[in-house]
Amino acid sequence: MNNKLVIFQGFEHVLLEVLVALTPLLLFFFFFQVFFLKFEWTYVKKLLVGIVMTFIGLALFLQGVYIGFFPVGTALGENLGSLPNKWILIPIGFVLGLVATLAEPAVRILCSQVEEVSSGYVKDKIMLMTLALGVAAFTALAMAKIIYGIPLQYIIIPGYILALIMLKFSDTAFIAIAFDSGAVATGPMTVTFIMAVAIGVATVMEERDAVIDGFGLVALVALAPILSVMALGLLYREKEEDQ
Prior knowledge:
With 243 residues, the protein is mostly helical. It folds into 2 domains: 1-68, no CATH class; 82-242, no CATH class. Helix content is 82%, strand content 0%. The protein has 10 helices and no strands. Helix 4 packs antiparallel against helix 6, helix 4 runs antiparallel to helix 9 and helix 6 (124-148) packs parallel to helix 9 (188-204). The longest helix is centred in the first third of the chain and has 41 residues, at 41-81. The chain starts with a helix and ends with a helix. The model has no long low-confidence stretch (mean pLDDT 87).
């Protein structure tokens, strides 16, 4: 089959998915535009251009996920899972988590908004590295979970208990940012690539189940920013008390 045809195989389904996702938002805006907002046509025209660009970008990205990220991630995981020294998956997981978070567009937008809203008090680079290191650590932990067969609840339950304890001592603003960060960090880069790697690793390892051991990574990644951002808030509080 022609390479161009392979690249765009199933593209019509992706276009339909993106169209279904964006149409309610567009209808929602036009409803408020007609009855309440009444923005000038120049603003509406810019918005429509942005919607078109978003539609094209999302469609191409999702197509790349289906034909590239998933297969490559799974194949990489299967090769890594076949290595004789399984412990090496832990530092590899750390690097993958770090790189995926740094490349996540939604994470960068969040960090930029945090710096803007806090008037520069919380720098975007500090937020970005906090999130990246947190996700990297928990991705490494997820790889250890697969290697040694650690049940997911042994990590998730203590993690959320720790998060609840930290709520008492953390600043309210950092708590809000932390829980939003958990959702933002589980973006397309993490879900499509790192999860595919984890499933690939669990598939080829003996006494491991791709469903039981391969999944659960997204839950860990969602927990990582909550703990790391609240820890950052505690550091900022300590810094304020010392001044």
